[in-house]
Amino acid sequence: MFKRLSILFVGLAITAACSARPADNATAAPAYAEGTQYVATPKPQRLDPNDGKVEVVEVFSYGCIHCAHYEPKVEELQKALPKGVVFHAIPAAFNDAWLPFAQAFYAEKALKVSPQAHGALFKAKFEDHYPINSLDEIADWFATKYGTDKAKFLAEANSDATKKRIEADSKLIQAWGIDGTPTIVVNGKYRSAQIKDFDELNGVAKFLIDRELKGGK
Fold first, then answer.
1. Long-range contact set of residues 38-42: C-beta below 8 Å, sequence gap at least 24
2. Could you identify which of 68, 75, 107, 136 might form a hypothetical disulfide with 122, taking C-beta atoms 3.0 to 4.6 angstroms apart as the criterion?
3. Do 2 and 64 form a contact (C-beta atoms < 8 A)?
4. Could you tell me which residues come within 8 angstroms of residue 155 by beta carbon, excluding any fewer than 6 positions away?
5. What contacts 151, CB < 8 A, 6 or more positions away?
6. For the chain, how long is the longest CA-to-CA vector?
7. Is the pLDDT of residue 216 over 80?
8. Is the pLDDT of residue 164 over 50?
9. Are 41 and 176 in contact (CB under 8 A)?
10. In a 3-state reduction of DSSP, which class is residue 37?
11. What are phi and psi of 192, to 5 degrees?
C-alpha cells in the first residue's frame, strides 16, 4: 500500500510538471475535473444519512505515512470549513497490519482521550519512530503519553461495538471505491482521485463542498 501510494504521488507530480498546456486554456478550464482530481462514488452513500449538513469524510490510517504528512493540512481544512459543513474521520483497515490502528481510533474516541492524541500518534510513529504497531504497543503508548488505563483501552479496542464500527466503515469505504489513503469523500457522492499534492487535495475538497452547498451545481 505504501509503495503504491508513493509511486502514485510521484507519478502524478511528474505528469503535472511535464504537461504543456496553453495558459488561456488553463484559465478557461474548470479548476478540477471529474474523472481526474475527483470521481463520483459508485453508489452515493453518506456516513451519517440523518445529518442535514454537507458531510466531509477523511478516510485515513495511523499506519499510513501519507496520512501523517497530510495531518497538518487536514487540520487546516477543518478550520476553514464554512457553516453547514460537518467533518468526520474514519479509519481504513485494509489489512491485518492496519486493523490495530482502526481499533485504537475507536478506543481513543470512546475513552475521550485528548483531541491532540490524534496528531500525536502520527508524530510518535513516523517522526519519533516509536514502536507502535501492535494493539498492545499502541495501548502502552496511550498509557504512557496520556495516562490512559491500558486494560480499559484494550477492552474498548476489542469490544463488539468497535468491531461493528470497523465492519461498517469497511463496507462504506468499499462502496465508495476507495483503495488508498488519505482520501476525502464529500456528501458520500464524490471522492478525491488523482491528486498531485495535499494542497490540491484540500482544494478539491473545498471545490466539492462549495458545489454541494449550492445544491450540487
1. 38/190, 38/191, 38/192, 38/193, 38/204, 38/207, 38/208, 39/177, 39/190, 39/191, 39/193, 40/189, 40/190, 41/175, 41/176, 41/177, 41/185, 41/188, 41/189, 41/190, 41/191, 42/175, 42/176, 42/177
2. 68
3. yes
4. none
5. none
6. 62
7. no
8. yes
9. yes
10. coil
11. -65, 150
Element (H, E) at 74: helix 65-80
What integer is the mean pLDDT of 159-179?
Answer: 97
Contact 59, 183 (CB under 8 A): yes
Preceding amide of 182 cis, omega within 30: yes
Site of grid cell 464524490: 190
Q: What is the residue whose three cell numbers read 481499533?
A: 103
Closest CA to 104 of 167, 65, 150: 150
Q: Which amino acid is at 197?
A: D
In angstroms, how far is CA 86 from the centroid of its own chain?
A: 14
Single-letter code of the amino acid located at 26: A
Tell me the domains of the chain and their CATH numbers. Answer: 2-213 (3.40.30.10)
For residue 11, CA distances in Å to 6, 8, 146 come to 8, 5, 40
Tens digits of residue pLDDT in 21-53: 333 444 444 589 999 999 999 989 999 998 889
Q: Which residues contact 106 (CB under 8 A, 6 or more apart)?
A: 91, 156, 157, 161, 162, 165, 166
Neighbouring CB atoms inside 10 A of 85's CB total 20
